[in-house]
Write a structure and sequence with these properties.
Pfam families: DUF1295 (PF06966). The protein is an all-alpha fold. It contains twelve helices and no strands. The C terminus is likely disordered.
Length: 307
């Protein structure tokens, strides 16, 4: 089917970019460019999915064809591509700067000296780039003239993306300022509990899940057209679901919670901060936490099950 043949180039792009970075930095035991590779992977794969027809024509004719103007694309294609571009550029830049400032990434302290394991992380990142960006890559395969017009659902989804993006950026900014002030001896707090960090232990992750939920929502009208096999819109939901799984159960919350317990486990303030923490929390408990300053969710807004 055409959709599968056109999604193959983004798949190849996802793995090719990470392979290129791995070939350079695995032998150097250098993890500082890992997050940059992720950002470049998203940007290049989105570019390939959007411009694939002209790229294919250039390859077949063996001549460089001019890229079509942005006005030739459907508004939804531009919104989706811009969303993934803005998110990946911001996050990639932020993480790379943090890695260089810290002198490296502690996640790779051991594995970067083991080429096979270190390479595995790069190729897992390729899988992450492809699966999480899948709604965008799929939507971009649909010819612009076949895109349905934007509707209320699309505007609501984009609003969710925009608000979640701002939420994530603000959370990262607040923690950066907190760390800067701590380095400047303006406070002696061991861990941040102010701002958005007073309503969630990991507000940046909350924002990221919201970002990908909004992007998926913006793609649903396209993925429900007859161009795609039935069930494609459900399959594309792997984007926010995989993001949530990674952050909540694998590479996000668990190692940070473990590190916090190791560092502050004997601190009464840490115990107080965790005492009424929920793994997943309803909006009502967030409102209540602002009144009592006690029930601080790890991750919201889902259920109210205790950890």
């Amino acid at each position: 089917m055409p959709v599968f043949s056109r999604i193959l180039p983004p798949l190849v792009s996802s793995y090719a970019v990470q392979a290129a970075f791995a070939l350079v930095f695995v032998p150097q035991h250098n993890e500082k460019f890992y997050d940059l590779a992720g950002a470049v992977g998203y940007l290049s794969t989105t570019f390939v999915s959007l411009y694939y027809p002209i790229l294919k024509e250039s390859f077949v004719l063996r001549t460089l064809r001019p890229l079509p103007p942005l006005s030739s694309f459907a508004p939804r294609q531009l919104l989706l591509s811009a969303a993934i571009g803005v998110w990946s550029t911001r996050l990639g830049t932020f993480l790379v700067q943090r890695a260089f400032k810290a002198g490296g990434d502690s996640r790779f302290d051991e594995v970067k000296h083991q080429p096979a394991k270190f390479s595995f992380f790069w190729f897992m990142q390729a899988t992450w780039v492809f699966l999480v960006g899948l709604p965008v890559y799929l939507a971009n395969t649909l010819p612009p003239q076949a895109h349905p017009p934007l509707h209320v659902r699309d505007y609501a989804a984009f609003a969710l993306f925009a608000s979640s993006f701002i939420f994530e950026v603000l959370a990262d900014h607040q923690k950066t300022v907190w760390r800067h002030n701590k380095d400047a001896k303006q406070h002696d707090e061991k861990f941040i509990t102010s701002g958005l960090w007073s309503i969630s232990r990991h507000p940046n992750y909350v924002g990221e899940v919201g970002v990908w939920t909004g992007i998926w929502g913006l793609s649903t009208a396209v993925l429900q057209t007859s161009y795609f096999p039935r069930g494609t819109v459900v399959a594309a939901a792997i984007s926010p679901l995989f993001t949530y799984f990674l952050l909540r159960h694998l590479s996000g919350v668990p190692p940070l919670e473990k590190a916090g317990n190791n560092k502050f486990g004997n601190d009464p303030k840490w115990g107080e901060y965790k005492r009424h923490v929920h793994v997943q929390c309803s909006l009502w408990s967030i409102f209540r936490s602002q009144r009592t300053r006690r029930n601080v969710p790890i991750f919201w807004p889902w259920s109210s099950t205790r950890e």
